[in-house]
Amino acid sequence: MFDFHYYTPTKVIFGRGAEGSVAALIREFGGSKVLVHYGGGSVVRTGLLKKTTDLLEAAGIPYVTLGGVVPNPRLSLVYEGIALCRKENVDFLLAVGGGSTIDSAKAIGYGAANEGDVWDFYDYKRKAAACLPIGVILTLAATGSEMSDSSVITREEGRIKRGYNSDLCRPKFAVMDPELTMTLPDYQTACGCADILMHTMERYFTNGGNMEITDALAEGLLRTVMRNAEILAEDPRNYDARAEVMWAGSLSHNGLTGCGSDGGDWMTHKLQHELGGLYDVAHGAGLTALWGSWARYVYRNCLPRFKRFALHVMGVEPAGSEEEIALKGIEAMEDFFRRIHMPTNLRELGVNATEEDLMTMAHKCAVGVGGAKGSARLLREEDMLAIYRAAL
Amino acid sequence: MFDFHYYTPTKVIFGRGAEGSVAALIREFGGSKVLVHYGGGSVVRTGLLKKTTDLLEAAGIPYVTLGGVVPNPRLSLVYEGIALCRKENVDFLLAVGGGSTIDSAKAIGYGAANEGDVWDFYDYKRKAAACLPIGVILTLAATGSEMSDSSVITREEGRIKRGYNSDLCRPKFAVMDPELTMTLPDYQTACGCADILMHTMERYFTNGGNMEITDALAEGLLRTVMRNAEILAEDPRNYDARAEVMWAGSLSHNGLTGCGSDGGDWMTHKLQHELGGLYDVAHGAGLTALWGSWARYVYRNCLPRFKRFALHVMGVEPAGSEEEIALKGIEAMEDFFRRIHMPTNLRELGVNATEEDLMTMAHKCAVGVGGAKGSARLLREEDMLAIYRAAL
């Protein structure tokens, strides 16, 4: 087992009506002037935004609001949020939404608490020394940003998508009410499930470390999410399935499923980041569109893990060679993606990429990871290009 | 799934030599004057205490020390610690040891940060409003106190053992170096494994709530601990097995394996608390001596869970009636306890209790739980007595 750090300070309030405790939680964590950050129509339409600001007003907590977060959240809005925080002396950020909104709030938090250009952190130029405290009302089970140390921001100039990780941005609290996710379009629900699975799978497919308990937790989480994703594909208003998926989303990205490993592979995410930067596809769908091609490209270099995955997660029968079992596991996962109506290649994702596009993405991806990356198999630019091509 | 709160703010530094970061961690969490709290000979003998105080001295962090914690930690030493904290203006507690030392530190933390008698909290008379911050250097994988909200203290007068739970006492950090547990006597290692298993089993055997992901995590944890406990019975210096068990110990009692349930059963612990109060037996051994008798007394009232436990944890073949499968699971767990040399009744534990002793324990237990308690089956004083009798 490799040495590890584990730090998940986020206080989770989980269940029906959990959002009712938001004002008390902001007080508990020292907030006195709040920026309520959100995305587009849905939190307005469902009344959640109004309910939230009513709760703050009733508690006498002053606030300002900033909406307009979009998927693949934009740096320009982050700058706007930072300016607003400074102007209004905001000392607490409340993100009402999903991963994009939380990630945008994290970037605002870094920018407002540090001098200089916040993009420097995402561009690997320097490290943040602080972050404004953040609370979350979660409306989408997917990215795990509500407990994670990561945020991903897209700079419009050059369409560059970058992530920055630091414990400083881990939310102080996360309010999780599965009922808030009931009205999501089926496609977004499925995308969320795919993202959750991938957060654990990125950690699972490694060549490093003996980590029995982590593997047992990861495999249990993957099986649970797959089972409940299929339930939700048929019965989107199933509360228990919503709850299982929502809690799994947090556990999948708070660090738990990576303890004792070498840090994991993460190349499907890196490849999808470039896809998302160029095409604005849904993150979860971009991941499933690439995963099979990535898996077939790397599995021979990480055979024991792919075999274990096939047997323990996908329920493949232990017959045939290691390679055969591993491939059956990959096929079974792709079959599952199709059953929840997720794409397994770029065409199904609706992306018609030219060879030049693929080369651009591979180049940006290689630069983004500093040349080469990957634990299941170390990938260089030519490998990345080969995977993009295979995913067409 | 039942609503739940989840809060595990403890920063974990896990791996070889992790204790080297203790001074930086104390600074990070604001400690400026430290009480180093410990037990008896082993941390002195192994040099860990000296190493710890050397690290504090090198970092210029002033400290005082208080040793003498014993298993089933005593209220009198807690009072001594509180007085020492007040006299020396201690603002941070560093527990160097296992669960007893951490629990004692937690009680000192409550006492030093609140007015009045600290026993009031343990006697359910009032709630603590604060606790001094606590850090841990863990030397024993067992109680999970390094991340938990609980502490258990024994008052010598009347030999009353009571637990008090509050998020306030959750340690700020826990340094976990599996190598520090290498020199433990085999019996203590096995007792620790038993305690870890029981923390998850107490949460697992309930009649409340659908909780798929929690069940999957719990079952994976139980299987991992059992496998590695058997490895350690043969090969006590196996680092990876030590590491698996140590990390499982924290996850088993930080709340993770109870999310979404009704809170669990906990009656084996309650019954053992009275045993421990009266006889000073090792906690883990007391639990295994009672568990089988408890399980056979309650399983018919909680059949689906006992069946699931038999199939998913103990690997029982799914043949026969639900009752037969459930009983085979109980027998398989007792067989496992015997394989790691743990007792499965009071005689094997070395306790020769008279009927009067059993009645005293049952009465104290019933008073302690406020009359009746238990989710697998609600137990009253006569049920508790029946279980103690069956465990003779």
Would you kindly provide a written description of the structure presented here, covering whatever features stand out?
The first copy, chain A, has 392 residues and is an alpha/beta fold. Helix content of chain A is 50%, strand content 12%. The first copy, chain A, has two domains: 11-180, Rossmann fold (3-Layer(aba) Sandwich), CATH 3.40.50; 186-390, Dehydroquinate synthase-like, alpha domain. Chain A has helices at residues 22-28, 41-45, 48-58, 75-88, 99-113, 119-122, 186-204, 212-234, 239-251, 267-279, 283-298, 303-313, 322-339, 346-349, 355-368, 381-390, and strands at 4-14, 34-38, 63-66, 92-97, 134-138, 150-155, 160-165, 173-176. Chain A has a six-stranded parallel β-sheet with strand order 1-8-5-4-2-3, with helices on both faces. A two-stranded antiparallel ribbon of chain A has the order 6-7. The two termini of chain A are 38 Å apart. The interface between A and B is large, with 40 and 40 residues. Strand 1 of chain A pairs antiparallel with strand 1 of chain B, so a sheet runs across the interface.
